Each structure stands twice: as structure tokens, then as C-alpha cells.
Amino acid sequence: MPLGRGDKPHHRRIQWHACGDTETELKELYTVPLPIECATLPVPLDYTNPKAGKLDLDLLRVKAIKEPVLGSVLFDSGGPGGSNVDAVAALSAQLHGVLGGNYNLIGWDPRGTGKTIPFNCSIPSGPTRPPSGNQRRDVIVQRNLTEFLFQGELIGTAFVVRDMVEIIDALGEGGLLRYWGLSYGTQLGSTFAAMFPERVDRMLLDAVTNPHEYVAGTWMHSLLQADKVYRAFLTECANAPKKCSLAPFVGPKVTADDLQEAIDAGVQQLLGISTVQDGTLSYGLLKFLLYRGLYDPNTWSSLADDLVSVLNGTDSTAMTSTPQTDADSPSPYSLGQTAFEGIRCSDTVWRANSADDILDIVKEQSTISSFSDVFYDQTWRCAAWEMDAKERYIGKFSAKTKFPILLVGGAYDPVTPLVSAFNTSAGFKDSVVLTHRGYGHGLMSHPSSCTAKAVSAYFANGAMPESGTECEPDLPVFEYIESLEVS
Predict the structure, then answer these.
(1) Is the predicted pLDDT of residue 125 greater than 80, yes or no?
(2) What pTM, to 2 d.p., does this model score?
């Protein structure tokens, strides 16, 4: 049966109510700064089979805090695998701060995440990263294959896009999308814009993935800026020795080169350790956690403290407590513990029958960054995946949307390089890229009033920044961290 174009708005409306147990659960996990409301919305379980029944989407709303109320903005926090219910509940004050406060904020649990047919392959928990290679394939794919083969077909990005159409129709706001997508949320946004360009009223793509690389499955250029961001961390630390403990530990008047040499020497001592055993931090885990620390600059002081602990031998496992973001284990609210693999692997077209089939791609990946060895293995798993989404959008990511898209690309983003924002923008007529020069993953990681004002003006009155606009962060990174500690 042909899939619908989503051009027939429904007359049903979302019925918002108190969140009850969901609110209790969220408040046990997060600071929830503003009142929340909840709802469920039945949508087709399988858009290719009208007889398959319905699926209840969990939704959460934080109302606008200023008049006039200009409508609702859907927010996707990324992953894939993140729950937008808990993200909107926890981040509502920040989201309102950027958007201006005149919009209701809507979060929902995309398929495979939260409580919406959560994808969980029941991998045993432990202190190490999940196994890779053939062992990972055996654990994820072969365990409970029959159950997850069915589920894995229903959680792809294209179906989530169709769920978004159901949501905006049921909001009763003209059937048009206002949207902020972060990280993988930009893949979701690009796919929506390509499938339903006439439905786009406002769309902010923040920390932009290359949609073609996502579908290809190789994520080939994701780490193009990773070493640049690592170098920035070292430089900022060397320039702020009173605020970054790593600098005085290494020596007086140190440079970024001095810090890198000290870290390299400490990392080299762990080369013979392949796994975490008896509290020993392995080379791979240390390097992985160092890379992941680059995502969120407000943790850079803690990252420096942890590196000191590792280098002086006082606590070899200090970094295992480093806060993680995006694609790591979802929050306890989310039951979709392996949604990251389930969604992206069912979306990608990359498949292989043997290691030899992917060898050339692996070799190319290894040349991208010094962190390639602790990042790209996650892409290899998808080459052996045995579940294809029932609908995969692999067409052109290009269209003239009803209203132009605003893209915010980070000049110092360790996983979604600025070039991806420009590559994505090239496909969508009249879209504009704003370059955010703060550190980390996404515009909220290292805030800029310049960036926030541009975003607020875009949503409020459709003002587009001039092509080539660049925005600096409000504070140097260690001053920013200090301001958070004071507040």
C-alpha cells in the first residue's frame, strides 16, 4: 500500500493532563524547573500496513511562559535513542531562554525510546563498554532475534517523521511544524523537510549531521573537528591555570604541547591493558572518555581533575564517572537501552557479509582523527545488522520548504563538524547556516547571546541571519564553568 503524503489533517486534538507517575519518575531523576503536562496520542503502528493497529506515543508539554503564545515547538534531543519527554522536562528553562518563552515546548518519545516500544536487547550490564565485532553482533542480533526483528522494523526515522505529522495535526495549530532538532534530531529534521517540505513553518537544525553519511552508515567525516576541539581544551586549560587543575599539575607556565605530552605519556602506560579489570582503567576506555568529555565544555574542569587523578595514580578509574551525552546509555527513564543501535542500524543501507567487505572503509575511517579507534567501531556493527526499517528514506535530502530552515553549525563540535551544516544546507533552498564558535556539541553547550538572539528572531518573526554570520560565546570556557558554579 502506498504510504500517505500526510496532507490530510485530522480533526482529533491532544488532551493534556497531569503527568502523575511520569512526573514523579522524572523528578526523581532531574531538576524539573517548570510545570509539565502529559498526553498520549495513538498513531499507526505500521504505516505500511493499516491493519497493524495503533501505537500510543507518550508526549510531554511545558507551556509558554510569555504572551502572546505563538504556538508549539517540537524538540528532539538527539541520539538516536534519546527520550524527548525527559529532555524537555529537564531542559525547558534553557529551551525557553533561547526561543524567547513564547512557545509551548513539546517532547515525545520517538519509537524505540522512552516508553514507546523501547528497543532493548537486554545486553548484560557491566563496567566496560559493550563488546564489539562478532561478539557484539552475536549479543545484539542473535539474542531474541524473532522478537526484535519485528520491533526493529518499526522504529526507523521515516516512521518517526510520520509520527511527527500526526502530532502537529493533533495540536490543532494549522498542521505546520515548528521544530528544534539537536544532533541526530537534525537527521530527523532533514528527513522531515525532504519528505514533507510543505509542512515546515520553522525548523532549527542544531549540531548538524550529514544526512547522506547517516544513511550510508559510515559517519565518515564525523570526527573532522575532534582533534581541533581536543587541542582547544588543552589551550584553554593552559591559558587558565587557576581554573584548570591539569595545567599546574604538569608544571608552571605550561603550553598546550606540554599538556598533550603529559597526557600522551599517561595514556601510553595503559596500552597493554585491553579491558577494565580490578579497577584498572584501560587505554581504550581512557581515550574514549577523554573524547566524550569534549562534547560538554561545562565538564572540562572535572575532566581536567580526572586526568590529574589518572596521571598521578591516585585514582585510575576517576574518569569512569565523567558525565556522558547523546549516544551513551540512555537515562533510567528510558527503557530503550539499545535504541541507539536499533534505530541507526535499521536506517542505514550499509551491509556486509565479512570483515573483508568493510576493510577499505575502516582504513579510511582510521585516517580521520586520532580518536578514530574509539569511535568508528560503533558503525561497523550496523554492517552486520539483520533488521531493516520497513520504510527507509534514502532519497534526495533537498527541497524548497514552506519556510527556510535555519542551521547552526559548531566550529568546535567534536562529532558534527561545521561542514556538515553547509552540506545539509546546500540541499534546502534559501536555508542559512549560522556558525556558532562556542565549544562542544550544540548551541547550549557553550552559550552565545548572539546565537540565541538569532534563533529567537527566526522563530518569532522569521528573521534569517545574513549568510556568513558567526557568533562568539559570551564567556571564555573556564569563566563560563565558573559562572555555572556560582549560579
Answers:
(1) no
(2) 0.91
